[in-house]
Amino acid sequence: MKKPRATDRSADVWQYEQAVAEIEATIQQIEAGELSLAATLEQFTQAAEQLQQCKRFLAQKQQQVDLLIEALTTDEMSESL
């Protein structure tokens, strides 16, 4: 398995953080009533798509963390034998 470079990880985090910031800005605009109905629906649709991307990103990162924890646990168990 190819090990990700530090720059790859920074890019992922930046994109995730940017998506979250955009979603929050959209929510603020919708709550403030700053958008027309058509614009609200369009922004809501985009925010929902971004949320799905964030969810997939977080699920992937959780899987990576789980694998690392499993590897550490396995290493600890083999060392104790």
UniProtKB/TrEMBL annotation:
Molecular functions per Gene Ontology: exodeoxyribonuclease VII activity
Catalytic activity, reaction form: Exonucleolytic cleavage in either 5'- to 3'- or 3'- to 5'-direction to yield nucleoside 5'-phosphates
Compartments (UniProt record): Cytoplasm
EC number: 3.1.11.6
Keywords linked to the UniProt accession: Cytoplasm, Exonuclease, Hydrolase, Nuclease
Domain of life of the organism encoding this protein: Bacteria
InterPro entries reported for this sequence: Exonuc_VII_S, Exonuc_VII_ssu_sf
Annotated Pfam families: Exonuc_VII_S
EC top class named in words: hydrolase
UniProt keyword annotation of Hydrolase present: yes
Protein family (similarity comment): Belongs to the XseB family.
Assembly information from the UniProt record: Heterooligomer composed of large and small subunits.
HAMAP family for this protein: Exonuc_7_S (MF_00337)
Function: Bidirectionally degrades single-stranded DNA into large acid-insoluble oligonucleotides, which are then degraded further into small acid-soluble oligonucleotides.
Protein name, UniProt field: Exodeoxyribonuclease 7 small subunit
The organism's taxonomic lineage, starting at the top: Bacteria, Bacillati, Cyanobacteriota, Cyanophyceae, Nodosilineales
